[in-house]
Amino acid sequence: MKKTTEQKYTHNYRDDYPRWQSWMKDSYKILIPDMLPWHFAIIERLLKLEGYDIEVLKNDSRAVIDEGLKHVHNDTCYPCLCTVGQYIDALKSGKYDVNRTAVMMSQSGGGCRASNYIPLIRKALKAEFPQVPVLSLNFSGLEKDSSFPIGAKLLLKLAFAVFYGDAIMWCYNQVKPYEAGRGTADKVRGELMDYVMTKYEKGGYARYKKVIRHIVDCFAAVPRTDAKKIKVGIVGEIYVKYSALGNNHLEEFLLSEDCEPVVPVLMDYVLYCVVNNINDGDLYGKKGIFYSVNKLLYKILHRMQKNIIKIFKKSPFEPIHDFEHLRACADKVLNQGVKMGEGWLIPAEMAALAETGTENIVCAQPFGCLPNHIAGKGAIRTLKNLYKNENIVAVDYDPSATRVNQENRIKLMLATAREHISAEA
Predict the structure, then answer these.
(1) Distance CA 19, CA 135 (A)
(2) To bridge 254 with a disulfide, which of 140, 183, 261, 409 should be the other Cys (CB 3.0-4.6 Å)?
(3) How far is CA 307 from the centre of its chain?
(4) 3-state secondary structure of 64
(5) What is the pLDDT along the chain (425 residues), one digit of tens a residue?
(6) How far is CA 373 from CA 13, 98, 269, in A?
């Protein structure tokens, strides 16, 4: 009997692992880790409109960490352990047909272990689910035979999704701690997620000024109290900065402590990656077509960011940081050639937060992330010399650290913040 294309595929794994192929789009479910809750909520629905059966994983029990420890070397970085654990735990749950399921992970292409996640995930899956393909979402030319296909139009849609996710997150965090009616901020957030998706479904998603203005107006209409709250910034490695699994629900904890969490927007990280490519050209003479494309991309995205800042300045909300201001803040602490991991972006965000009234900061440090410890924890003394009231606590997130110890360290930081407020009063 003649074998079908699919049968040939399943018996012809090169290098002992399966590759994603175009025909899988119609029959496979793709699982992605809950790395960016605000943004992936939009991107998940956006990719479904493109015909992909995408699901963002929400499993975050201790079993996830245990599975990660079992399948990943215990010296690898904590974010990798969390994502692998989510995949394995989900595939073991019985909810998915493992013969029709793939997993996807993003790769920045930077000089840290994140660029090696795909081989690590493949090795972990090979132990129990060798038939599950791994896709790479990257813009750096990595994993060419297993990259998620992204054309120019989809790339543009994803860029807008980042801006919209940022706007909703930024406004929500300035409203939630002060809402007069319990749950009103959450209700508005849900409505705005639906509103953004209607723009993708019916057209008009590219009219970003109108969309951002609507987001700002909806949150501004939420009744708020005039209570005084301690503002706490969250910076650090990208996964533990945003992922509730990675940071043990840090934002929820800060809200329970009567604080206002201030989380820098994701577009800053996108622009950071683009600028690093430009800096490579300026520092090392790598000026070709790739350099020119990145300069053009940065010009477009930064202009859009400045237009969004203008909208925020006309609202009751603190505007997001201008990325050029972040670069100037970085220059006070680190050279912009320090780009491993989150590199100069971490001290830049801490400095910008201090200059805009957020002097209390949690610097999230994942186990195994050497660049983050150097650029984050290593810059704290310099930042405290620059900003005398800056109150920074570096919190380590790893499989052996207990949530109680992490929260106690943050509570000590908050106690110092309250002392500062009392002294000023």
Answers:
(1) 8
(2) 261
(3) 22
(4) helix
(5) 443 444 444 434 456 788 888 899 999 999 999 999 999 999 999 999 999 999 999 999 999 999 999 998 877 889 989 999 999 999 999 999 999 999 999 887 767 766 778 888 999 999 999 999 999 887 777 777 788 888 889 999 999 999 999 999 999 999 999 999 999 999 999 999 999 999 999 989 999 999 999 999 999 999 999 999 999 999 999 999 999 999 999 999 999 999 999 999 999 999 999 999 999 999 888 788 989 999 999 999 999 999 999 999 999 999 999 999 999 999 999 999 888 888 999 999 999 999 999 999 999 998 878 778 888 888 999 999 999 889 999 999 988 888 899 999 999 999 999 988 888 76
(6) 39, 37, 17
- 352 located within any domain: yes
Which DSSP string do the residues of 188-215 spell out, in sequence order?
Answer: HHHHHHHHHHHHHHHS-TT-HHHHHHHH
Domain annotation covers residue 28: yes
> Residue 256: what are its φ and ψ, rounded to 5°?
-70, -25
- The contacts of residue 311 (CB under 8 Å, 6+ apart) are 209, 212, 213, 216
What count of residues does the chain have? Answer: 425
Q: Do residues 118 and 246 both lie within one domain?
A: no
How many independent structural domains does the chain possess?
2
Is residue 140 domain-resident?
A: yes
Q: Are residues 37 and 134 in the same domain?
A: yes
Do 139 and 233 have their domain in common?
Answer: no
Cα 395 from Cα 240, distance rounded (Å)? 10
